[in-house]
Protein 1
Amino acid sequence: MAQPYDFPERLLAGREEYYIRRKLDKPGVGSAGFTEAAMAEYIRCCTPENIHGVCEDYRAAISIDSEMDRVDLEAGRRLECPLLVLWGERSHVERSFEPVVAWSHYARAIAGARKLPCGHYPAEQAPEETFEELLAFFKD
């Protein structure tokens, strides 16, 4: 997705449904929790413009975003607002990272953190738990 414009966009053009179904149906985290209605909505929203936006986001992440983050970290700038960190216990985030440690480099006030019983998509795969955490966070 981060490859130069317009290589990934052209590869996915006309294959949006295939792309979404393959992206959301990963082994180990899979599409469990995605109803057919939810999947249909993801597919509906997966337009060429959406794909281009996603590609641009990936491109920025490996270029200007990384540089801006480095400058902010070196200057000691961090998020000042309270932060809630949520992630899936069966996701690559749980397997490969320490989310609270990682976010503590960027934020001064981690107000809450919890791994949820899901894969990479908490809102779809653990909607009740996600809602409860968000509700508690925003009530405070």
Protein 2
Amino acid sequence: MEKNTKVSERDERLKKLKELQNLGLDPYPSKAKITHDIGQTLADFKALEKNQKDIFIAGRLRVIRAHGNLTFARLDDGSGQMQIVLSKKEVGQDNYKNFTKLIDAGDFIEARGRCFVTQKGEESLLVKNWKLLAKALRPLPEKWHGLKDEEERLRKRYLEILTNPDVRDLIEKKSVFWNAVREFMLKKDFLEVETPVLETTTGGADARPFATHHNALDMNVYLRISMGELWQKRLMVAGLPKTFEIGRQFRNEGMSAEHLQDYTQMEFYWAYADYEDGMKLAEELFKHVAKKTFGTLKFKIRGFEVDLNKKWQTYDYQKVIKKETGIDVLDASQEKIEAKLRELKIKYDKKGFNLTRGLDNLWKYCRKNIAGPGFLINVPVTMEPLAKRKKDDSRLVERFQVMIAGSELGKGYSELNDPLDQAERFSQQQKLREAGDEEAQMHDHDFVEALEYGMPPTCGFGMSERVFSFLADKTSRECQIFPLLKPKGR
């Protein structure tokens, strides 16, 4: 029944569209005349009311109420909503008739008129003339923001944004978030760069890439899985001391509340700095961005109370796992770790399973009770093929990860700049790939060659839009404007 009603409403609007065209009225003109947006009009209302000059505003009609010779409507242009009033006497009989008969809620119009206050005290625009800008053929939903079917909400996200102020606010905050990141990095004298999205070998992360074909060069290429890590480190070789990039990256992996396949990431690279310098800068960055975006440093995230202003802790990878599971990550065999995963009933992908994947699954089990804020340190060298070994224990690397609400929200390390060590680690990663681990890193011979020309001591750090979703206490999917969905019927 509901489907038939919608079809009938669309048919009625199609009839109105035809009638408008028969009257010689263009239902989809190219341009509108606007002298004021609605937000500006309401802010300057008293002055505009006093001078009594006509202004032009435009927007979508949200509500229309006809009362004989007077019609009241609400106009929304994205900067605000304002009541407009049409009088048969003011606009003329034909214009009034056309409006009440052929115009619907959801249509876009341009209105010329003067500001006045109604008898009920509402700041309004008395319309002298109007012009249709776009005829909507489907009616707007009345309670879209209450829809429980998440798939349908996300598929027609434009309707959720239109009808749910909280979703629009989330999108606006996300813009503030990334602008705050950029502002912070620029103030710290980092140079913003752009590196390739298409690569012949992927680098900078343990992840399964998306593959495609480059027709002009007749070769297979990959969409990047990091924010140009190996490219930005080439820029360190080139003599640029501080670089950062904000952009889109892609990982052909599973979906969850925290993980997406294409998302925004920021990475910076800082010559003559190490991972301890990186931790200090990352903490400062998080505080700046949180305050700028949300106006606070205190958050409720995934059931945790998180205060970014308190002293940030350090969490030792080896000690945390041993305390939670009894496993010594520097001594345990792959078989022992796999047995522990089965004992703890931790689900894991058996394809390409190895020691590194086993440790990663074990850590994900242990991290869930860490509230943060703080840094995870002392990770085994097998977990990070691009980081420097620790001076006091070559089994570990100089790596840190931001820990908040039971998850990692950023990773950095003292970058490995020893070309011989790097080549050896790439070789080990290549063996893992050949054994079936699709997330192991590819051997990038060109990058090793660049390192042989000399790269200064460097710290790198990366964080993704998952930081925003955690601070907003929303799923990553909810925080994307248009998340990827299967087409209907598949």
